[in-house]
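Quick one: Zn-dependent peptidase ImmA (M78 family) from Evansella vedderi, structure tokens please.
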Amino acid sequence: MELIKKKIYLLTRKFNTNCPFKIADEMGIQVLHEPLGDTLGYYSKHFRIKFIHINEAVNDKKKQFICAHELGHAVLHPDVNTPFLKKHTLFSTDRIEVEANTFAVKLLFHNGIEESVTINEAVEEYGVPKRLLKSLG
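--- reply ---
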């Protein structure tokens, strides 16, 4: 958990934002909005080029959380092509999914430089499960 907090601190200070889209852009990570069906998003890396894939059908706030989650993979697990993020994987016990969820929540809601978000906004607008927020404190 401390490693995640440290990485978020360094990224938000370096790029002067907690917006995952801005950070991804500054890091040279391509963000693609695609029709993904039931899949919310995923991270991939091909020939040293990093990609964040986001379902184009979800609302903008959910896209922000998905981008933050996938950015977590890009930062914490850069050489692992992650499985598709689906709604049920927000509760995954898989270590890398837990770390990516922690990264996303801490980036967007705890260490933000920009406008802060309440728990209710996180649940209702961003689609973050309340259980996930409670487990991260």
